[in-house]
Amino acid sequence: MCNKIFLASLCILNLSIACTSKKTKKQLSYTVTKHLEHSNSIQNYVGTPNTKDDREMLMFSDQGAWFAYSLPNSESSSVGFSGPFLMTQENGVWLSPTLTEIELINSKDNKIFNWKNTANQNSYASHLEQEYENKYLKIKQQLVYMSGHTALQKTSIINQTSEEIVLSPIFKGNLFHTGVQISKEENGIKLLSSKSNAVGHIQFANTNVHEIVSDSTSYIVKGSPLVLSKGESKSFLISQTFIFPEYSWEQEKLIISNVHFDSVLQARFSEKESELKTLNQQRKPNFTDEVYAKVLAKSHLTLQNNWRIPAGELKHQGLFPSYHYEWFHGFWSWDSWKHAVGLSHYNPELAKDQIRAMFDFQKDNGFIVDCVYRDTTIEAHNFRDTKPPLAAWAVAKIMEKDTLADFVKEMYPKLKKYHDWWYIERDHDQDGLCEYGSTDGTLIAAKWESGMDNAIRFDDSKIVKNSEGAYSMDQESIDLNAYLFAEKLYMADLAEKLDKKKDAAIFRKDAEILKKRIQNQFYDSEDGWFYDTNLDGTAFIKGAGSEGWTALWASAATEEQAQRVKEKMMDPEKFFTRVPFQTMSKDHPKFNPTNGYWRGPNWLDQAYFGVKGLRNYGYNVEADQATIQILKGAEGLLEKGKSIRENYHPITGKGLYAKNFSWSAAHIIMLLMEE
């Protein structure tokens, strides 16, 4: 697991304030374009944290930033955005309820303007915005990410009266107890941590600031009076920057000093509109209704909010499984392969980096680490096991969108080494069929390697030693060997892309041999399902689970076998539940979705493999039916404001475990795409 790292050890905070004036009868207007409008409040970011560990609300971020914000839900005399929520410390904490609150005092009577009604709050893939209004003033606030280091907050104030108004602005903030303390420095505030030697700064870049008061956990900055004539508007621009030591703060500060907020906002509009348009243009013909455009927008935002730029040990950008769950602040290998396939449909460059991020940790023997973190201590990463071999699938899917050979050329030797590793380190009896295992000889790590940690098929498994640092479970798994079969075909495609005809021929020949082995060893003709077997291949490990249709996903089953599997998949008493294609058959005595994790819940990756498996054998009517039922049956997927969950109860549809789960979002994209 990830060590606890504190904010100040890995980030620098800067706030700069500038004020501009514009005489106008109305607020600055802009147009949210067609596809971007589908993201309007599709996620519910409203919430004000009560403690540093409060995770009741969702958090918005962009550009791979390691910090996020929400929209406040409490009435106040001040205005501002909730947060920031920091993913640079303690697996995610709030630094402040509102780090930069703005209070406006009417100089005429020395009273603070109160904002009892929030006129409107909206969130888009591009930005957050909120409006406050009383009979004197109208305030509009917008927050947009300039980069992965900096968020810009613009506050526009309009005089709605027929008389001149003189305002005294106050900027203030209170910190939660996170190990960070405030002190004054020249023309600003310094943030020091008792738990690290890094320093944060709040700087005020112009003469509007004339007094600063602070203690160890709070500050107040008093601004010079603002005079607003009838209909006049004035705007404050506040930048908040969290920047890691490996990046240049001086360069970021220079960019901020010349930034134009509306240009940044327009750039985000264009960027998100383009990505969402690209996704919607690829939808299957049967899924062109607006409701599917909205679930794509929700999936896109889920991936966006989990996106992180390189930092610390992470040398390439990629996605968390979920920023919302404290132990998911890292990159996992098979999550990464799935993220990359989803991303390939609209952002191939990020998809490539997600794959590179894991291969940065590839060992000389080809092994790929299970999970990695930003932490600068190598012990934080999990080298006890890897995850199922889906990397070549991901690279091949990216190749379909980006036909240049450069990325394939870069990845091919690494993928080949990883593919070969399975047969060297995870084939106990050297019979050409592999097993899940571990590097440390523990059974728990071997179960993790399958990705299906507590699946019932592993209840009676034992560990056997292959060689020093290489162990297998005493069973050969259908899904692992189906993945390896598919990987051989994908590797053949990649080899042909690079004109490696000999490699391609070998991969295709080996695939044909493995295909026959899969059909003969893992399929039980008596009950029409694929199962794991013992090492000798003489006994099935019974209990129908989602691993049974991986042979269909890989196109490794015969037509007759696929038909028998399809019949069970479409049986309401087995797998065709409210949220179809869950991890275990409904009629199994160990079926336990509520507390089962991999013993009954529906994981959308497994559901996708099932749907894709049906399509591979021409069962498109059933595949469409299952897709519709998955999206309708899973709680909140087609509703505004509900997050995408890690998994779902297949009978009730209730969302289970982590919110904002990336691979669920990625597989929703895959379910709806024309492939």
What's the gist of this structure?
The protein is of the alpha+beta class.
Topology:
Blueprint: H1 7-10, E1 12-23, H2 34-37, E2 67-70, E3 78-79, E4 82-86, E5 93-94, E6 101-106, E7 111-112, E8 118-123, E9 128-133, E10 137-145, E11 150-159, E12 165-174, E13 180-185, E14 188-193, E15 199-203, E16 209-214, E17 218-223, E18 226-228, E19 232-243, H3 249-257, H4 261-281, H5 290-305, E20 307-308, E21 318-319, E22 331-332, H6 333-344, H7 348-359, E23 371-372, H8 391-401, H9 406-425, E24 437-438, H10 443-450, E25 463-467, E26 470-473, E27 475-476, H11 478-497, H12 501-521, E28 523-524, E29 529-530, E30 532-534, E31 540-541, H13 550-553, H14 559-569, H15 604-616, H16 620-633, E32 645-648, E33 655-659, H17 662-672
Antiparallel strand pairs: 1-19, 2-4, 3-6, 4-5, 6-7, 6-12, 8-9, 9-10, 10-11, 11-19, 12-17, 12-18, 13-14, 14-15, 16-17, 20-21, 22-23, 24-26, 25-26, 27-30, 28-29, 30-31, 32-33
Helix pairs in contact: 5-17, 6-7, 6-8, 6-17, 7-8, 8-9, 8-11, 9-11, 11-12, 15-16, 15-17
What attributes does this structure have?
single chain; 675 residues; elongated; six-stranded antiparallel sheet; 17 helices; 31% helix; disordered N terminus; alpha+beta; seven-stranded antiparallel sheet
